[in-house]
């Protein structure tokens, strides 16, 4: 029996554009419960450029339709679990957009009618001809493509129309038309919202009813515009009147086009139409807030938001202008770099809100100290600069600097609390200290840092030596980075002597730099620089390995009870990797951890005691001893000290140096000794240089001392000689000083 094909078309309602349609590879779902027929159908369609998916029954077909999109479904009617009609009912119920071609073995008309009623695209009775099936699939895909394109186009047109109506009805601009006499023939409701005029009352009124009197001359060109295209008036600003007394004048940016109308039936004529001027069409946009915003943005672009002072950009503009005038008039000008002292501590302890309020008050006080033609600016953070043009002599800048310091010296009151702050001020004068803005700022900054180094709370002028020192610092930075690779670092050791027994019980490890140009440098010359450069971790790792290597060497010589004391940066103690490296180094060098003593300053413990406890406990777990260096020079707290597992207290040399006369009383030294005794700690006095100091410390109960009176720092080879001499003297029962 010849197969029968039925095409069924339906009209879908308007819908949004369908993004799922692709021409590259249409997706087909093949559904049949007969495996051989399903395989044959797939083989037939394979290679036609389709993406094929198969389903062995109705339930699988519904599952596939729920998970994926298909352009055409080739559906068998007679399936036992769920018929093809049932599958089409699910498709229609769920609103699935696809074309269904029914493949049926039924000869009755009921199956075809059921397919038609369920909006199937086509119907083929089995067996069907291959060309009929392929043609029907192509037609279904073509129909789907055209249908989707049509409804997408229709949806876009409808959307465009809705958007156009919305824009006209909800335009933020005043849209109007005028006749040849300049009377309104149309105006939208925005005129009421912005200006307070009744739009109906304006129809037929002259445009002059809205225009500010001072702008009427310019308005004639706008509201009587006859030009078209690019020559028409655009972006002309006019001030329009407001009908409400409380309303302020508003500025409008007006774009105009002239509309030329043709007479009725003109387009049906072959002759050129005559043009008759009918009026003007325009759009007026309110730019009042825009102008205010532009003014605000411009102001903020050149001013500091926090203090309302000129910012870096405006300051440099004024500095360049002042330099031009100074060159032309052959005058001097001064640039002052002002940096607040200890502001970070106040900011961190009280919070950024109070810190910002302090900066605002500082700006107010500094502004009150300058002349009208001077410029005070904030560069950022707690850094301010002052530009003083028209100086008669260099020293005139000192008057302003003294005013600044005096103004900042008075207490600041913030939230009922008094705060005290000072400043360091660096001064550079044109033309002696710099020919351009960059040199003046840089040299004033260098002078400010010199003041900070000298104790802060003062001012100073730039000097050529500051530049030389800066160049030397930069050069030293570069050389320090190469010092490790070149083997220029070396460990020196200063012995700690038990004055009662007369022997060396410990040594303090001190780093030295054998600089090829500057000679032997002590830690004070390069360790602060290394701290700034972030090299302390690398230097500390090298120091630990070098000290442990020397410990191993002396241990082989028989000095197994000698302690080695090393100073560690807080940066190292905060790193987990440091503790692992320290443990590995002790293991590799085969030295006892008890022979190593780590010296830390008391400020590390007081600043964050909980963190310090954890760090010191980790050292104790390794077996390393702990010493507090420079005890008494910082913010000592006995409550915190009791919580730390500390083995040794060191009396700072600043207290030892005060012991200068017989019979004197030095309570701080006595207090430190008493604390060490009470807590069961060892005690070391450092910086001992006289016999008087030795006698006083011995009488007070301190036996172990360190200083130039006994030994200066020495390399490990010299230390070996000292220890060997000590051993020989002990065997001969000779005092240590005589043996030395």
From TrEMBL:
Q: Does the keyword Phosphoprotein apply?
A: yes
InterPro entries the UniProt entry points to: Biofilm_reg_signaling (IPR052155), CheY-like_superfamily (IPR011006), EAL_dom (IPR001633), EAL_sf (IPR035919), GGDEF_dom (IPR000160), Nucleotide_cyclase (IPR029787), PAS (IPR000014), PAS-like_dom_sf (IPR035965)
Q: Name one GO molecular function term.
A: cyclic-guanylate-specific phosphodiesterase activity
Q: Which residues form the Response regulatory domain?
A: 27-141
| Keywords of this entry | Phosphoprotein
Reaction equations catalysed: 3',3'-c-di-GMP + H2O = 5'-phosphoguanylyl(3'->5')guanosine + H(+)
Q: Where is the GGDEF domain?
A: 331-464
Q: Which GO terms describe its biological process?
A: cellular response to nitric oxide; phosphorelay signal transduction system; regulation of DNA-templated transcription
Tell me which residues make up the PAS domain.
Answer: 160-230
**PROSITE patterns in alphabetical order:** EAL, GGDEF, PAS, RESPONSE_REGULATORY
Q: Which residues carry this modification: 4-aspartylphosphate?
A: 76
* Residue ranges of every copy of the EAL domain listed in the record: 473-727
Q: Does the UniProt entry include the keyword Chaperone? A: no
Q: NCBIfam families this protein is in? A: GGDEF (TIGR00254), sensory_box (TIGR00229)
Which PANTHER family does this one have? BIOFILM ARCHITECTURE MAINTENANCE PROTEIN MBAA, DIGUANYLATE CYCLASE DGCP
Q: What is the name attached to this protein's record?
A: EAL domain-containing protein
